[in-house]
Amino acid sequence: MNTFQVKPIGTIISKESETTIALNKEYIEGLRALDGFSHLSVIWWFSDYDSEEMRKVLETPQPYRQAPDVMGIFSTRSPIRPNPIALTTVQVIHINYEEGIIEVPYIDANNGTPVLDIKPYTPSLDRVEEPCVPKWCRHWPKSLEQSGIFNWEEEFLY
């Protein structure tokens, strides 16, 4: 079995008034030339859900109101996974290149969450013009912008 060593490049900092990605000093120069990108793909570690027990879970009871009664973990966005890796697209509000701070409006990660990598969002590689999704989630928003005003509390069963 192959094993991999992953080293965080930074941390999510969530305060009441702002959310930022704070890069470790040795990675700050990696921000060069991000000017002009409106969004980033952030790869982060579900650190609050990382245990041997949680990594063994492969099925979950119905997590969404209209979903099947039981779902495989790979058909959910659950933090409980064999490798607790998360991917979130965020809007860039501001980048402080000297301090290595990226200000974003929101990310679905907790304060102190390790960030593994960031990549620029580019429509030519990241956007799918006509994606297909199962019937149970077709009523979900069609964009990140619409998701911000969608009542997600009505969707989840926990």
From TrEMBL:
<dbReference type="GO" id="GO:0032259">
    <property type="term" value="P:methylation"/>
</dbReference>
<dbReference type="InterPro" id="IPR023370">
    <property type="entry name" value="TrmO-like_N"/>
</dbReference>
<keyword id="KW-0808">Transferase</keyword>
<dbReference type="InterPro" id="IPR036414">
    <property type="entry name" value="YaeB_N_sf"/>
</dbReference>
<dbReference type="Pfam" id="PF01980">
    <property type="entry name" value="TrmO_N"/>
</dbReference>
<dbReference type="InterPro" id="IPR040372">
    <property type="entry name" value="YaeB-like"/>
</dbReference>
<comment type="similarity">
    <text>Belongs to the tRNA methyltransferase O family.</text>
</comment>
<dbReference type="InterPro" id="IPR036413">
    <property type="entry name" value="YaeB-like_sf"/>
</dbReference>
<protein>
    <submittedName>
        <fullName>tRNA (N6-threonylcarbamoyladenosine(37)-N6)-methyltransferase TrmO</fullName>
    </submittedName>
</protein>
<keyword id="KW-0949">S-adenosyl-L-methionine</keyword>
<keyword id="KW-0489">Methyltransferase</keyword>
<dbReference type="GO" id="GO:0008168">
    <property type="term" value="F:methyltransferase activity"/>
</dbReference>
